[in-house]
Amino acid sequence: MLIIVMSIMFISVPMIIGSYRQFVKSAEALKEIQMLKMVAELTNQISRERAPANSAMSSQGQQQQVKIQELREYRQGVDQQYQNTLKALTHAGFNSVAEQLEANLLPHLHQGRLTVDLYCFTK
After folding, report:
1. What secondary structure does DSSP assign to 46-63, as a single string?
2. What is the model's pTM?
């Protein structure tokens, strides 16, 4: 009887360890996919900022003021999504990705916004 139990243990322990390793890999892959999803949603929101920006740049008079306010409100949502993405990336251990976003994305986003704002207020 002891031989049967020991045989089952020798067979099942490597299988359990292998399953656990597979589970850990799957959990890591899920975390990476979730972070990729957050970054993709952020880039989509930034891309969609073009519509209110185009509306603000093409409108005139009182309508322009309304469109500029809509643009400001949309930008607040984008900024909030940006902060949420940075926090999630840092919390999940993707510090280098968060740093790259801060170093590369944020300056270009501010430059693009500044260009739109200058155009809106100088035409």
Report:
1. HHHTHHHHHHHHH--HHH
2. 0.82
